Amino acid sequence: MVRVHVESYGCTRNKADGEIMEALLLSAGYELAETPESADYVVVNTCAVKDPTEVKMARRIRELLDSGKKVIVTGCLVHVNPDVIDPRVSGILGVKSIDRIAEAVETAEHGGKLVSVEGWRERNPDKLELPRLWKSGVAFVVPISEGCLNACTYCATRFARGVLKSYKPELVVKWVKEALARGYKEIQLSSEDTGCYGFDIGTNLAKLLDEITAIEGDFRVRVGMMNPNHVLEFLDELIEAYQDEKVYKFLHLPVQSGDNEVLRKMGRTYTVEEFEEIVSEFRKKVPGLNLNTDIIVGFPGETDEAFQNTVELIKRVRPDKVNVSRYSARPGTIAARWKQIPGWKAKERSRLLHRLRLQIAHEINEAYIGKTVEVLVHGPGEKGGVEGRTFNYKEVILDSGEAGELVKAKVTRATATYLLGALE
Questions:
Q1: Which candidate, 409, 139, 395, 393, places its Cα nearest to that of 286?
Q2: Over the stretch 314-331, which tens digit does the pLDDT of each residue have?
Q3: Measured by CB atoms within 10 angstroms of the end CB, which terminus of the chain is less buried, N or C?
Q4: Where would I find the Radical SAM core domain in this sequence (predicted)?
Q5: Which residues contact residue 150 at a Cβ distance below 8 angstroms, ignoring those fewer than 6 apart?
Q6: Model pTM?
């Protein structure tokens, strides 16, 4: 019996792709191996969002090959920079070809090598029509679309995922119902950009949320990242959908820069003022909003003044969490052709912003001390105790609790990255 192990890196959407491949391998008669060591083949489902990630992926593929494993590579790296993939691999599948995973193993078993890297124009399966391996747990990822409508000058992910393809609302709802019937308590809606969901099929994210929250049962919905330019198109409707108690009061809205000229060069098609307008409207109507944003520092053309504008924006808006990334040029992107900022300068800016984000996060989290919050228990925590998520998706470590339970807990301590609490 041929044994296959699938390892997925990067975003939650990749995790879902990995579970689809596992189900397809099982139905084709292959055995799933728990560890790479016990497998004949290892499927490396890659991420290529940043340069350091790409280096890590290439190293992992080499390590596995050197240890005598046969390796099949899929995921975004295949589209973004295939040159770094070791030629010894047994097969290469693009993100739109994961439904051919069993065929790739079979081809390799017969001494061949399946390479299928079609783009979204040639091949664009509806992944919600494919099977998925059900695992135990509290949270279940439901991809709602693939691809995006933006054309950011720094992004290589769109080479892999292509232009927006929204999945039918009835299929999304079907998967949510199935997950709830199997005991999952948290639904994570995933996409490259949830904000433009439905724009290609005459609907939107707010309408989808209304359909999901209308499903019977006590569960929570976490909405994935959404870009500001799309949110502006249906802001009031989206805020209304967020009023439902089943929706986590969690908003991941990447601004990327606090300077309008840098945003223009990034191809982001919204202004700093529009970003602030969205945040202001949400905060007015969604009490306790947990705002997460993303910043890229060291983008080509980012002057000291432009960086200072970013710092001022973060001080004004005070997000609960800021994901700070140093710009890294990705192959084939427009921004890679521009004059790059010295690495030391980007590192300096990154450190400064990192210190600021931790200080703000700590101050925000300290305000929770002494408060009673509702928590969905996820299970044993990596930091010890039991990990859970509050009504606004803040991580909290409790002294006890059963996975899947909704409990009331009192916050006793706070750090910059998580809360600590005790059951009431």
A1: 393
A2: 999 999 999 999 998 888
A3: N
A4: 134-363
A5: 158, 193, 227, 229, 267, 268, 269
A6: 0.89
